[in-house]
## 1
Amino acid sequence: MSTTARPRVSARLSAIAESATLAVDAKAKALKAQGRPVIGFGAGEPDFATPDYIVEAAVAAARNPVNHRYSPAQGLPVLREAVAAKTLRDAGYAVDPADVLVTNGGKQAVFQAFAAVIDPGDEVLLPAPYWTTYPEAIRLAGGVPVEVFAGADQEYLVTVEQLEEARTDRTKALLVCSPSNPTGAVYSPESLAAIGRWALEHGIWVLTDEIYEHLVYDDTPSAAILALVPELADTTVVMNGVAKTYAMTGWRVGWMTGPRDVIKAATNLQSHLTSNVCNVAQRAALAAVTGDLSAVETMRTAFDRRRRTMVDMLRAIDGVTVPTPKGAFYAYPSVEGVLGREIRGSRPETSSELAALILDAVEVAVVPGEAFGPSGYLRLSYALSDDDLVEGVSRIQQLLS
């Protein structure tokens, strides 16, 4: 009889890294709870309350016994119809409600999309910098993330030529996120269409995360790849949700749309994994996607103001380069010009070391570039109050100057 000890935790889950963005946010909140004046730029979360009309819809739903029972795992039919209508209104292409799956937040849509499309050994082209969850979702599906890096000199936008260089006979899919988390980069319609045509030519699936679709600035168009290249419909999965647009991060309602066989497979998975999304949250999401966008515009205007303030302040720091973010609510400065410099007796060589120094020295929490790809960068969310934003970046300015 073998006495060899078996691992207590599976290799599959042991290999998953903690979400760096959530870890930074948790640390900032823990320090605040201790009474320290920490300012956190880590969380990708609007600081606004969910609009009242959405909250009221949830209150009414909670009182209705019909919402106290199981509902279809694929989502409430009325919400799936509303998502289809919203897609046509906002993205400019048609979706059948039967091809919509309502998920527990956009993050679950990402995991299920990869699970439905990727087999062990399949390669997924992953433009970097990338959201920290993407590579973990790819690996959990058995896939192999293949990073395709575009730095500040390219405004964090990969080219068709780079994608082609990374393509192999094992390439199954391409991840697209525009507007981007973590960089705020937005692909032009021309660039996005070129990428879509390239994927179509080579039979590559496109998994596109469009959760920041309404948060764009400077008259930048937020284009949907399926509106530009409709021939991709049979090999494209779209992930979206209400979290960012409507300040509903805690409500946990997202969705995925795609070919019917893929949506059916993902629905089967969800039926075993979580069953239906909370009915009250679904009713709130219904109010969100069927309402007008006036509350969204109010938030977008505030984000735009904060974006410009943050970029101007960061650019005033010697050694920091900041491409102008055109969407989402993040700035992604390159700090390569700061690394190696002596700062209060320390000489940080990586962005991770620099982020730790910033937190320790001036009590400002930022996320290092290692969470999103190569070292040498920081992500700062400007989804926080104007006063906190100015105070936090001022502390960084004083430290690095």
## 2
Amino acid sequence: MPRFLSLVLLLLTGIPALAEQPKAVLRAGAFAQDVTPEKFPVSVNGGFSDRKATSAHDPLHARCLVLDDGKTKLAIVVVDSCMIPRELLDAAKAIAEKKTGIPASNILISATHTHTAPSVAGVFQSDPDANYIAFLTEKIAAGIEKAHANLAPAKAAWAVGHEPNQVFNRRWRMKAGVLNTDAFGGSSDKVKMNPPRQSADLDEPAGPTDPSVTVLSIRTADDKPLALYANYSLHYVGDMPLLSADYFGVFAEVIGQKLKAGPAFVGMLSNGTSGDVNNINFKEAAPKLKPGERSRLVAEAVADAAMKALEKADYLSDVRLQSAGAVVELPVRKPTIHDIKRAEVVLAKVKDRELKGAEEVYARETMKMMAYPDKVSVPLQVLRVGDLAIVCIPCEVFTEIGLSIKKDSPFKPTCVVSLANGYFGYLPTPAQHAVGGYETWRARSSFLGVKSSEEIEKTLAGLMKQVK
């Protein structure tokens, strides 16, 4: 092209005529940071009663992946923990930002929701372990820093598989006339969480399941497996001795084996929208399995679905990265004066012993909820990795919310991560609140306003438009 014509084109378009815009070249780094406590015993989250672990069955990790497209850096972390408060994660992000330069707003940290991990959030009779909080904060930040130090040219692919046989809605509508009491002496609940298996009182599940296994696979420039991030909407399995990463940890091991990956490979499985879903088929009798056997069966099935999804996936080195976030102010369901007086009566009967049963445990929760503010600040986030959207909610999200977000998303695929960037209890829909059940009972495990899911979905829709 003559120089004169090049100058004319430059003046008319503002784009250099003799040079194309450089393409982004993806870089990626991964690291699995061990976060197993160094001191025992430790308090363990995941039940009405506190439990003490004196050893670990298998190691706990903060599995870290850092991505860089030349303009934007993202960090994605999955931690083997039941639930992690926002304050802890914000502190870890601040340290990581200082060490790596990755903006805290571009860092996603989620908990797997294993029920066999040290307590870092106060729920029911398990109180946070202060020493482990400090330890975990530093370890998460260190894992991000090490993953960042491993950045190297890479390729990414995304796909969606399906594994419908491992997810069952755990909330069941009971047949007419069946008495279904709650923790506060009421009997208006229409559904029951985890009802007796094969009970004649079962009517139908109160909600859907999501069989999707969404996968983000990362390879080195010479096509060696570097990391794999997956998302599946299953609460946990719960068949391991204390402490354990549950089936999430087994998946990380199994997917590396299936990919024939080297020792530096990092497998990651995040929790999808599983607030009302578990691995129990309530229509069948419980199978007789050894400890850990169910976790391995589930992990193998999810890993097989991930592998199948990737069979036709295209790996790209030109991958666009983006992040958007917002904080929404949501109302808190506070106890009334009547609730408080009733709780005081219940607790007055308890002497120097552990609380027993839902009534006593929720009486304590009622007293704890008195100190909560009228509103809380809830962080929401959307990450874009190529054509994949990773939507992040700091709650135990009901499956139908995740399905709604995916249906309306401008990104295909989209995955929704629960327990991401904080912990704000269960997130049912208004319709699920109306039929009651454990997940709706007011406590530190469920306190957001009845219509909070609608506000969250609306805000996330706007964030997805930002990164589109």
## 3
Amino acid sequence: METAMFGAGCFWGVEETFRQLDGVKETAVGYAGGEVENPSYEQVCSDRTGHAEVVKVDFDPKQIDYDSLLEVFWNCHNPTQRNRQGPDFGSQYRSVIFCANAEQKQKAEASKEKLAASGKYDRPIATLIEDAVPFFRAEEYHQQYLAKRGRSNCSL
């Protein structure tokens, strides 16, 4: 089993996207990259803790590889917007990949370069690629938020 961690805006839809993939064994939403130990949702939403809303993805690399997870990440949000996705804005919604090891970091950087060179976007890729940091699990009501409500995405 391996773990990946992605921030791509509001964690509800991002979690549901990854949760549907064969080979993903568990997902959890939470906060990472900030300066407050075990922050609350209200603290993170203040945009003063430095945390991003993230999804932790536990996956079986024999069923789905990290490169495939990166593809899903790039396609589930707009990576040219650093601190905004849709109507949500602030550093807690930043586009970020937290890498568990050197191999993940190399793959993330290579995939970012490939996407930038592809011409898919008119603007530069703003996604940050950083070393893993502590993950703080979000409150239980955020876990599988959309699935609990019979929804697959946040769109109206």
